[in-house]
Amino acid sequence: MVFRYKVRPTKQIAEAPCSPELMTLLSCFATTGDLRAGQEGAQGCAQAARTLHACMAKPPRNRGKGQPSINFLLSKVR
Most buried residue among 5, 29, 39, 50 by CB atoms closer than 10 A? Predict the structure, then answer.
């Protein structure tokens, strides 16, 4: 007996934490070449890296109660 389960996509768009900081760092890498390069923009990349590191060190936001994951629910079905 094969069961077919349909999973509806989430209606909320997932918010990525620290995405502006990451985009700033990646664009700095793209323009200057590398963080450790001896170019003029290397200090700007170091500052962007520090900003991203500080953002990642923050504890994650509480999402509230939320709903159980689909994998948890499907594991209960027998």
Answer: 29
Whole-structure pTM value: 0.55
Q: Which domain holds residue 55?
A: 19-60
So what's the pLDDT on residue 12?
Answer: 72
* Structural domain contains residue 34: yes
With respect to residue 1, please indicate whether it lies within any of the assigned structural domains: no
> Is residue 29 one of the residues assigned to a domain?
yes
Q: Report d(CA 35, CA 24) in Å as an integer.
A: 13
Helix, strand, coil: what percent of the chain each, to 5? 45, 0, 55
